[in-house]
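Exercise 7.
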Amino acid sequence: MQKCLTVHRSVFVEVDLTLKTATKHESCLVKKKALCKYIQASKTRDGASRFISSATEGENFEQTPLRRTFKSKVLARYPENVEWNPFDQDAVGMLCMPKGLAFKTQADSREPQFHSFIITREDGSRTFGFSLTFFEEVTSKQICSAMQTLYHMHNAEYDILHTPPTNDKDSCSSTGDCNGTSVSKLQRFNSYDISRDTLYVSKCICLITPMSFMKACKKVLEQLHQAVTSPQPPPLPLESYIYNILYEVPLPPAGRSLKFSGVYGPIICQRPSTSELPLFDFPVKEVFELLGVENVVQLFTCALLEFQILLYSQHYQRLMTVAETITALMFPFQWQHVYVPILPASLLHFLDAPVPYLMGLHSNGLDDRSKLELPQEANLCFVDVDNHFIELPEDLPQFPNKLEFIQEISEILMAFGIPPEGNLHCSESASKMKSLRACDLASDKRNGNIAGSPLNSYELLKENETIARLQALVKRTGVSLEKLGVREETSSKKDLKIQCDEEEFKIYQLNIQIREVFANRFTQMFADYEVFVIQPSQDKESWFTNREQMQNFDKASFLSDQPEPYLPFLSRFLETQMFASFIDNKIMCHDEDDKDPVLRVFDSRVDKIRLLNVRTPTLRTSMYQKCTTIDEAEKSIELRLAKIDHTAVHPHLLDMKIGQGKYELGFFPKLQSDVLSTGPASNKWTKRNAPAQWRRKDRQKQHTEHLRLDNDQREKYIQEARNLGSAIRQPKLSNLSPSVIAQTNWKFVEGLLKECRNKTKRMLVEKMGREAVELGHGEVNITGVEENTLIASLCDLLERIWSHGLQVKQGKSALWSHLLHYLENRQRKTTSGSFSTSGILLDSERRKSDTSPAMSPLRISLIQDMRHIQNISEIKTDVGKARAWVRLSMEKKLLSRHLKQLLSDHELTKKLYKRYAFLRCDDEKEQFLYHLLSFNAVDYFCFTNVFTTILIPYHILIVPSKKLGGSMFTANPWICISGELGETGVLQIPRNILEMTFECQNLGKLTTVQIGHDNSGLYAKWLVEYVMVRNEITGHTYKFPCGRWLGKGMDDGSLERILVGELLTSHTEADERQCRTPPLQQSPSMIRRFVTISPNNKPKLNTGQIQEAIGEAVNGIVKHFHKPEKERGSLTLLLCGESGLVSALEQVFQHGFKSPRLFKNVFIWDFLEKAQTYYETLEQNEMVPEENWQTRARNFCRFITAINNTPRNIGKDGKFQMLVCLGARDHLLHHWIALLADCPITAQMYEDIALIKDHTLVNSLIRVLQTLQEFNITLEASLVKGIDI
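Solution. The predicted structure, written as tokens, is:
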């Protein structure tokens, strides 16, 4: 058997209490002193424990000596070393006894405790450890008297520090951990009495293996321990059994089972074949019992989206089981970041890590969650395993088909007699939970589900239609959700004799069933993923080097094929490191042989699904497809367990000297290292793989279940081209010197900067689409969902940066907490009178000399933006406020500037952050702000589009023409503003007031302004140049050009106009200031004004230009409808804007229009009215040519009449605009053009060269307009007010 494939050593740990300073010849007292010094030293050294309340601090004098923990050390290991797996003494010592060495007396419970652990190396490969901790009697008198002395000192010190003023000292309970200041004397002095008590110390035996055969290793260790505690010595010396495990028991080959002998009975392990799900040997059952289905699915979702996950339990094995189960259920994806299922006490500072992590923290069972100070909680998922409680990060998207998925898992659990909501008896706080009030739970949305409570999620969902449908479906399978009906075993394989016991077989069955259901979710969701993988155009070598700049998956196309409900989850999942690694792996493995085993299994499953599903490969459906592979998977396990493939050599007597291997009841002996240091010179297992090179290859194969290392190139790639997350998979467990901690933090700082660079680049590329072609896309179109995802992940990154190296944590959001400190500082300075204006920077780019009427500039103020967010009552939490503030700053293009200002308060930063924090590394901070500055290149509406229900103040400025007596205007004006999310209704403007501010619910991006007056007074004529409207929170300013009269007898006689506006970008403002020319975007009315009043002013367009304008306008509308619904801009702009459809059709009708006589204006509407009269007369004389034509004429007349009868005074051009809009909506425009081209009135009013008289041109115009027929055009209310057609 090659060593690398077996358990290769056992570790025994016990304390060396005499320490280095005490030699055997010194007196007992010195030893005690040394012990005390050691404890004091370790107390001062352990700064890490600041995260946990004092009760859990290891060396704390509040703790009685028996409750303290001491440093452990490795006593022996066999063999000394294994070439490919160097022994890491510190890591093993820390993980075998994460809290150090413990003492107990005969009064305490001393049950042996088993737990497993994992050591992750730099390259990501893993080694598994399995340890059994038990207690042995302390035989050294010196250690016993040292403990006694410690008690005397503890009590004396306690008396000095806590002399209580009153005498009610006995009120405290007699546990060693009483936290009141008065501890009863009786309890203190009697905790350990050398004459009466027996002292026990912990010892641990441990197996280190390359693969995780948890059940088998647990049995081996338990049987070894049983051998030293049973009254009868074992049949052979212990060395024989350990030698057998180390050198004679091989690893079962893939797809085979193996039987070997323990001390008291056979042990069986089996390994899945290469076509099955990878090896996993932890009981899934326990996780579901502890947490309940709903919590498990929520935790699973958090892990997939790479949130920080902290598991909390007082059982090490539970931490390991939950962590391993969650990562195993992710198949085919793999957790890429920090993975420490058991975090040793000395590494608590690691919770500060600003990267995604999955860590397990040991609780002492006394403190509740509220006492736990965690450095970073904005995107933390906290799982209190023992208390069935999970605290989720904010805005966690739902896992696709979550209800049906939970339903499917529940059926399996119920078939095994496990309630879906978990078993409360297995969690410590059953009694605590019962006392919780249901209303508290209802208000606490973050708690997944609390089993056994009246708020059981199944009760809540009973009324739900989906559940009702599901229940109907489920009834067919013979299971009812009402009661836990246990399905009858339908297995026809009863005749197979299973070699392991029934309980173990059930665990195997449940494991594989649950894992198959989870794996099936991904095979269904990603059945077509290969279609969207972007294969690199260059060779592998250059692909490696540019890996981070390359897109490896066409996310936009993939998401556009997904059902709507999946998008929130999938859009975020596609951004994760685990998904990127999975796709990289796919790109690297072209041929089958080269393929990573995990990928090979997944691809074969995907192929099967494709064969089964006849649907088109890319058309997605949200129909829930149940798992169909369970029976097959169960059968393979059953066959392996029924027929054992290999049996290992039995343990036998070794060549030991007489007297070696003696047995002493209750003590695990020091074994004979000479016989255990090397294996047999020849046996059939070692012969098979003698050459070292072969062994190296095998080692690579063997780790591939955890790491994808198949060749040197890939090894190099894994080392270099991976992101920070995988650079630090596990903290260094060996050397904890300040320099190592500093180095780790430096890695984090570099990683955060790199992540910031990649995120900003990705967001800009998506937004601008410029580099899209290089990245393998034709045209990038970022979807709203995707943009939201990217911004949410930027917020997460900012939270991680702000919580790195925090001195004192306040509130859940580190960023918001910093902002509040800043605000407080500013207010203090204001009141003390030494206020610097840097807090409120005026927009210095504006020129004061600009005398044209303009709005006073909006102040750029970090504090003002914070106040806006604080005033939004809808946002309840700190994390929510921080995110809203980031979104607002991005929309205002001030994120970099605001953060720079926040960090310019160096005193505050020093007060809040440790020296190593990211925010105190000046160069990195500058680069980080520089990366954020690049967002100013694009426009985001990430605040306006998300907070749709909040109240927003709007500022209006109306600019009348100075030249034409605006000051004499006597009528009462009104205005109505519309946006994509709603409209204001009519707002009366006080006379002679041209500027005002009002508040209303968020209107979204503004589209139109209706402005008019009531025609009262002597001079009811008003020439308006333009209207400006500004959102006072985001600062977005819209300009609505008009340039037309409002008044009877002026222009086209209109009393109200609809103005179409566009967002002003800061550079157009700058241009205007320099040259004062009319703005680039003109309202359609601007053009008409020139045409109608002085037709000669405007350059006449030729027919080619007019056709082009029509084509562009229609094209704009077609493109609008081809975008996903959430990303469409304003249709009003495309219809009525500067180069919209109305303006283009106006050009058609203006072309060749006979010039009006002097001083008389003729409008297109006049021509249309004449045409209407002509058709009505025809109908009365019953001279209508054909029925089809008759319907068109009737329709045309009906629309003209309706528009003329509207109560609104919109003028002739306004009426024409309304007609075009209605015609587009009802798909009638092309009919009307055909009608008018044939009308005799056209011959009278148009010259021969007119476009409308040229049949070829009219036909092509009709064809272009017909393309609008397939779209369902919905008009904004402001365009068709007062018309009921």
